[in-house]
């Protein structure tokens, strides 16, 4: 028995040690679980912090871009005020204020829902939700997007106001502005920018397409914004008719811009605001690709504007043998419009070339309208309509996909130099962008005529000759002039 006892004593000794070991392992396991929980909690905090940071950064970026686009209305106001005669300054400023105030309210009531309010089973023609911002609280990032797109919306009406300046009644223009910002512009936006319209939507495989193949490429709105405004402008200018005595040879110099400094300042304001227009169309600033894209867009925007402005100055000098500063201002704007669609998918050299071609398109369109005796005081159609169409074409012609066969389009940086990206799509994309031009021009012209013509026939659009002779400010506004102009005579002995 002593032998048996001695043989079992080591086992008895191991049991307490095993218990201690198991207890220690249990403690270690608890500590590991605690550490793992803390790591998971820390990772969650990091993810939440990053998400909050990304959301905040996107919001700051979009608010900044929205404010820059909104600031463009001060540029439009100065440019248009300087381009008209002194006696109509208040009237054109009133129209700019009306466009912004009516435009944002209409965007709130019906414009945004038609443009971006996609229903559960979205159609290809129009949205139908988010009236009066209902549903925004469920997706609060929509607030910044609403403001940014709303600033775009008012631009279309502002373009029209300049083309019809000095002879258009406020009530008629206000009526058109309501319909422009409620129906005409929002539906074009839905077709191209909502992601559901027939000109640019996502198919069942998750690929961006249109009804004829590749999606339409309009990064920031040469077609969506500027062509809509430009086509509405020429329709309005034709239907309202020319200003009294506009084409009389005895009054050839009576319609010169009354303030070239206003025109120049307005141009610089617009150029500055355009960086919000184009760069802000990245719609975010939380990734490296978005940051570099915004920088690329800013560079292209600058180069096209500079090239176009200088070429127009040279063209005007060649034609008239004088330096036309007002013409150069419009040339800069024409370059900005021309690059707005392709700014996100062309190289810097292409941007310069796009601006140069835009100069010839602007100058040719301006001279053609004068030849046809269409009175457009600020060349709104030449700048926004003709160069807007050119910008849409340029987005396909100069796309930076490898060679002439590959189309990059909306792919950001991913298809640059990639031979396996969208092979064979370049020609289809070019045809698609032509269809965009035809669609926008037809839609906008049809509804603009449908609005303007009855207003003209009803006597609600054109001011009478007596009012035009007195000046809209004297006849319709109080005080009767925009600003007091006095002269002090100093005797010199």
Structure description:
Residues 1-5 and 487-493 have low confidence and may be disordered. 47% of the residues are buried. The protein has helices spanning 2-83, 89-116, 142-163, 170-193, 222-240, 260-279, 288-320, 325-340, 348-371, 380-397, 426-457, 465-470, 472-476, and strands at 196-197, 200-202, 208-209. Helix content is 67%, strand content 1%. By secondary structure, the chain is mainly alpha-helical. Helix 1 (2-83) runs antiparallel to helix 6 and helix 7 packs across helix 9 (348-371). It has 13 helices and three strands; from the N terminus they run ααααβββααααααααα. A hairpin with a 5-residue loop joins strand 2 (200-202) and strand 3 (208-209). Strands 1-2-3 form a three-stranded antiparallel sheet, covered by helices on one side. The protein is elongated, with a radius of gyration of 31 Å.
């Amino acid at each position: 028995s002593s032998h048996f006892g001695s043989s079992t004593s080591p086992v008895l000794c191991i049991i307490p040690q095993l218990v201690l070991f198991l207890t220690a392992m249990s403690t270690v396991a608890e500590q590991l679980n605690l550490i793992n929980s803390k790591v998971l909690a820390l990772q969650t905090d990091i993810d939440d912090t990053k998400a909050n940071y990304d959301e905040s950064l996107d919001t700051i970026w979009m608010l900044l871009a929205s404010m820059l686009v909104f600031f463009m209305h001060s540029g439009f106001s100065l440019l248009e005020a300087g381009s008209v005669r002194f006696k109509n300054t208040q009237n054109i400023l009133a129209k700019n204020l009306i466009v912004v105030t009516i435009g944002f309210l209409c965007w709130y009531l019906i414009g945004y829902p038609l443009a971006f309010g996609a229903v559960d089973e979205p159609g290809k023609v129009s949205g139908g939700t988010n009236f009066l911002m209902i549903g925004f609280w469920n997706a609060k990032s929509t607030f910044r997007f609403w403001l940014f797109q709303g600033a775009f919306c008012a631009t279309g009406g502002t373009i029209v106001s300049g083309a019809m300046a000095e002879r258009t009644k406020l009530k008629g223009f206000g009526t058109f502005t309501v319909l422009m910002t409620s129906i005409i512009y929002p539906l074009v936006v839905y077709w191209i920018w909502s992601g559901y319209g027939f000109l640019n939507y996502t198919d069942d495989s998750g690929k961006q397409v249109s009804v004829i193949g590749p999606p339409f490429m309009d990064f920031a709105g040469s077609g969506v914004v500027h062509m809509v405004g430009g086509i509405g402008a020429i329709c309005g200018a034709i239907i309202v008719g020319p200003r009294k005595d506009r084409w009389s040879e005895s009054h050839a110099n009576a319609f010169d811009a009354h303030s070239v400094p206003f025109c120049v300042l307005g141009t610089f304001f617009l150029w500055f605001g355009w960086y919000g227009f184009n760069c802000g169309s990245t719609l975010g600033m939380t990734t490296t690709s978005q940051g570099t894209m915004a920088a690329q867009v800013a560079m292209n925007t600058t180069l096209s504007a500079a090239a176009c402005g200088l070429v127009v100055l040279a063209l005007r000098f060649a034609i008239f043998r004088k330096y036309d500063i007002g013409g150069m201002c419009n040339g800069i704007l024409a370059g900005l419009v021309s690059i707005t669609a392709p700014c996100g998918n062309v190289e810097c050299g292409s941007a310069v070339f796009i601006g140069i071609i835009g100069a010839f398109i602007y100058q040719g369109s301006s001279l053609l309208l004068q030849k046809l005796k269409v009175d457009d005081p600020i060349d709104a159609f030449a700048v926004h309509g003709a160069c807007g169409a050119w910008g849409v074409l340029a987005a396909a012609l100069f796309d930076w996909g490898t060679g002439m066969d590959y189309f990059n389009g909306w792919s950001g940086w991913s298809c640059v130099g990639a031979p396996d990206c969208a092979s064979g799509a370049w020609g289809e994309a070019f045809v698609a962008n032509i269809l965009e031009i035809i669609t926008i021009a037809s839609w906008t012209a049809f509804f603009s005529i449908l609005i303007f013509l009855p207003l003209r026939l009803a006597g609600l659009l054109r001011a009478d000759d007596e009012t035009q002779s007195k000046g809209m400010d004297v006849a319709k506004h109080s005080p009767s002039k925009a600003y007091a102009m006095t002269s002090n005579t100093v005797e010199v002995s």
